[in-house]
């Protein structure tokens, strides 16, 4: 039975990977590496550190590209709480608003956010703050310190079975709207994404992103694959790292990938192992996609998901459609309605993009399950989606 038919708890993805591939590297970051066994143990430690809080507490975790993010992300959920995933670049006012709207009681931030948090911490006495990287204020603890404190203690009993339709994560859509995602949404989405991207146990995925992308994280753990985190601001450096790591996939953002496609420098050889360059969000022009594929040595594969949610579309690795984000992944429906929202738009005519599937958050969808994405696009005669105006960050 597939995970689409039989979803599990989100942290169960990590439990399974640690059982099936305990010694496989889960995360590599510079000279550091964490195996799946080590990652799972660290998640246990962070979950234990949160065990004294009421079940269902909202824990905000900053999605910085740092190895402590998956520990805090899965650990908050394993402890029976809800993880609110936050953009590390939020302004002070936007961060304050996100904390208020989501009801965040504990925020796991980056030390560089300490100045933005100073006033918020004073005004919100109930807000606790920990840090992913290093203490941002006196007396603060890091994720690593909390894990170490629990390492020598007896492991607490496992929490009761999780309702797969309970909320696991909160994301933020346009205008700061809070988007609740259930365990079912996320685990089904992880299985769909891993299949669409071609992730498997032997995959090595270079994440060359300014922040952790939840879709890539969940899909990589579902596949028990290896993530390599690249903090180099130069996209050419990310491709060079992919070559050194013998990576199978390279994940980037549209704007840096477009710059790389136009870069005249001879910065790196074509990769021999990368099967696909993955990019979500705004689309890349066909001309830039061709230059990028020639430069990297692998096709550009673009994908799409509503802001804050799992993917719903992905282009084919073996036969990408230039300029398209592909067709719906299995189990997913898509329709484009005319601009008045009443009738289906014919192929080639832009309209409002709507999606429906088990990975789509039903709390924000219409009663019939269709989610209004807020994006404009059109379908071709074969059902491939082309975005005209996407409300996602490029």
Compact overview of the structure:
The chain has 394 residues and is α/β, with parallel strands linked by helices. The chain has helices at residues 10-20, 36-49, 68-78, 92-102, 114-123, 143-151, 183-197, 214-222, 235-244, 254-262, 286-296, and strands at 25-29, 32-35, 58-62, 82-86, 104-109, 128-131, 167-172, 178-182, 204-207, 226-229, 249-252, 276-280, 300-304, 313-314, 327-328, 333-337, 351-356, 371-379, 385-389.
Task: Tell me what the structure shows.
The chain is α/β, with parallel strands linked by helices and 394 residues long. Helices cover 30% and strands 23% of the residues. It contains 11 helices and 19 strands. It has helices spanning 10-20, 36-49, 68-78, 92-102, 114-123, 143-151, 183-197, 214-222, 235-244, 254-262, 286-296, and strands at residues 25-29, 32-35, 58-62, 82-86, 104-109, 128-131, 167-172, 178-182, 204-207, 226-229, 249-252, 276-280, 300-304, 313-314, 327-328, 333-337, 351-356, 371-379, 385-389. The strands form 3 sheets. A 9-stranded mixed β-sheet has the order 2-1-10-9-11-12-13-14-15, with helices on both faces. Strand 3, helix 3 (68-78) and strand 4 (82-86) form a beta-alpha-beta unit. Helix 2 crosses helix 3 (68-78), helix 2 crosses helix 6 (143-151) and helix 10 packs across helix 11. The longest helix is centred in the middle third of the chain and has 15 residues, at 183-197. 50% of the residues are buried.
Labels describing this entry:
nine-stranded mixed beta sheet, alpha/beta, 11 helices, 394 residues, six-stranded mixed beta sheet
